[in-house]
């Protein structure tokens, strides 16, 4: 490794150093992690065991559920272990690995959300051409390319972080090893690393977010033209939920990584980070899946329950 400074361990300070608050945070995040993991696992199993859901939309949804499960598992279990044991140490190698997978899964998640928005755009606005455009080959590319690109991004950041020097301060004011936090902690020149965060953040965050907005604009127009008030409200309710979670994800990421450094505070950054690393992956199974009657029917079959299923617009 490139780190030649003698720093073998970091200390993750977490969200609080008060024992009473740590106990509360442990219960809160354990509950959210369990609910999110269970929701994502049930979504994956329901789709895999129901051949009627072997469509592009549910193919993307399966991948999103898997990514959300991996994304939260990169940071939350370590935080829970720290609160449970009272030890907040993390080795340099473990810290670098955590940062790598956090970037890889987070980047894949971001790009996949834009692919799902494009899929919904085709389904709603061009239904007659949907089958010919959204082929199995294109679906595979829209999932594979983000994975490959995300791991390349993670590798670049890891290599450049590994060449930084870390002196006497080994306290990370965060609940996981974030690239921005490590950059601030370094005692060497971090200009290149800071430029990389901004430069690589454009294809990782800004472009996917713009693609989501572009995709949902004609969808909103199509929904507005739905003739019945009930159908319009149902469609707006579903599409609005999708867009609100996507906005929460991209909005907090942009707030953390694209705000001027002078406006950053560790506490604000951590709260924003919790929103897109824990809250949105926990909400996604309920927003994308449990509001969908076809999937609720599949979940009913999986759990031995009876449900009617009707297709929704989004």
UniProtKB/TrEMBL annotation:
It is found in: Cell membrane; Membrane. One of its GO terms (cellular component) is plasma membrane. It comes from the Eukaryota. The keyword Phosphoprotein does not apply. Residues 39-288 form the G-protein coupled receptors family 1 profile domain. GO terms for molecular function: G protein-coupled receptor activity; olfactory receptor activity. Gene3D superfamilies: Rhodopsin 7-helix transmembrane proteins (1.20.1070.10). SUPFAM superfamilies: Family A G protein-coupled receptor-like (SSF81321). Its main location: membrane. It holds the Pfam family 7tm_4. The chain crosses the membrane at residues 24-46, 58-80, 100-118, 138-161, 195-223, 235-258, 270-290. It is a multi-pass membrane protein. Keywords: Cell membrane, G-protein coupled receptor, Membrane, Olfaction, Receptor, Sensory transduction, Transducer, Transmembrane, Transmembrane helix. Belongs to the G-protein coupled receptor 1 family. This is Olfactory receptor.
